[in-house]
Write the C-alpha cells for this entry.
Amino acid sequence: MRDKTPVILLLVLLILIGYSGNQLGWQSVPEGFISGGKILLQVIPLLIAAFLVAGMTQVLVTKEFVTKWLGSQTGWKGIGLACLAGAIIPGGPYVYYPVTAVMLHNGAGLGVLVAFISAKNLWSVSRLPYEIALIGLEFTVTRFLITLIFPPLIGILSEAIFGRFLTRIREEAPQL
C-alpha cells in the first residue's frame, strides 16, 4: 500500500471516537457520525464539480502545453503564469488541488506548482470583495501588497532547492 492516508485517517478516527466516548459519553459517537454525514452530503456536489473541472483541465491542458509554458525550464515566465492562474482561478481547495495534480502529472515544474497554490491562497481575486467588505479596503490593500512578493519568491526558491525531487514527487503522487 503506497498511500497510507486512509490508514492514518482511520487511526485518527478511532482516537477521536475513544476520546469523544470517554469525555462526552458514548452517545456522542453517533452524533459525530451524523454530523460528518451531513457535511459529506453538502460537499459531494462540490467534489463532483471539482473533479469534473480537473478532468476537463486534464483534457484541455495537454502535456505539451504544460511543458512549454509551466515546465521547470520556464523560469520566471512559468512562475508568473502560475501566479496569475492561482490568483484568478475560482473556488476552494476542491478545485485548485485537483488542477494542481493535473499540472503535476502533465509536466509542470515544482516552482510553478508552489507558486500556483501560494498565489491562490494569498492573491485570490474572488476573495477580495469579501475581504474588503469585512475588514476594509485599507487593510486588504496593505495585506495584498505585503504578500505580493511571496508566491513568485517561494516558487523560485522551491524550484531551486527542491526541484531535483520532482520526479520522485510525481512517482509518489496519486494518479488521477
User: Anything to note?
Assistant: The chain is about 80% helix and 0% strand. The two ends are 17 Å apart (CA to CA). Residues 1-43 form one domain.
